[in-house]
Write a structure and sequence with these properties.
Length: about 220
């Protein structure tokens, strides 16, 4: 049985209300690192599929991380996870293909245990009518990135208070075994820089979920 909760219910209701019979619907679930967008997106897909098997599919944008070797060559490894460390042009091609192509689509995924992308790791079948895409920068108001927003029929933005987000990010690094001082250093470094960029520089969404309580586990992305 799929998880439930007010944010899930609101998102599922928005998707159901926005569907046009006979047309594929693309939904974007967006939020800073630590906001719980990945878990929300998975729960939304599970809830939709509780009613009709195979009705919805999840496509994460994490597969478009640049490989570590390329980041090292560009001097960007220290800021992995920032917008410039993603292959945004390839991501745009994928979302355009999902929007406009009638066939099955292969796309890359990301293996966190290996800290590496998996080429063709995901498969989106041609007959899936609801596609939920999740990621940090799907609404980012920057060159190339901003071309993504018009391709989505529905957009949802997770907007936790910055203080709560910092707490979650510190807890996440503690969960991975870092000391309190090291966890705070990592959270306040690259993580919060990227988080503040998402919070301050994203285009408006159809639904904004203001998380005022501790709704997301510290390991969420």
């Amino acid at each position: 049985m799929a998880a439930s909760g007010p944010d899930i219910a609101k998102t599922v209701e928005l998707i159901r209300r926005s569907r046009v019979p006979g047309q594929r619907l693309l939904a974007a679930i967006v939020g800073p690192p630590g906001s719980g967008k990945s878990t929300l997106a998975a729960a939304v897909v599970d809830n939709i599929n509780d009613d009709t098997d195979g009705l919805a599919a999840l496509v994460p944008m994490d597969g478009y991380h640049l490989d570590n070797e390329e980041l090292i060559a560009r001097g960007l490894l220290r800021c992995k996870g920032a917008p410039e460390t993603f292959a945004v042009e390839s991501l745009l091609e994928l979302i355009s293909a999902i929007r406009n192509t009638g066939g099955d689509i292969r796309y890359p995924t990301f293996d966190r245990s290996l800290d590496a992308t998996v080429p063709n790791g995901g498969l989106l079948k041609h007959d899936v009518p609801i596609v939920v895409v999740e990621g940090n920068y799907l609404l980012l108001d920057r060159p190339i990135w901003r071309q993504l927003a018009p391709l989505f029929d529905v957009t949802v933005f997770l907007n936790p208070p910055k203080a709560e987000l910092k707490r979650r990010l510190v807890d996440r690094w503690l969960h991975y075994g870092f000391s309190p001082s090291e966890a705070e250093r990592k959270a306040l470094g690259n993580d919060m820089v990227n988080a503040e960029l998402v919070l301050d520089s994203s285009l408006p969404a159809d639904l904004c979920l203001s998380q005022k309580t501790e709704q997301a586990d510290s390991t969420l992305s």
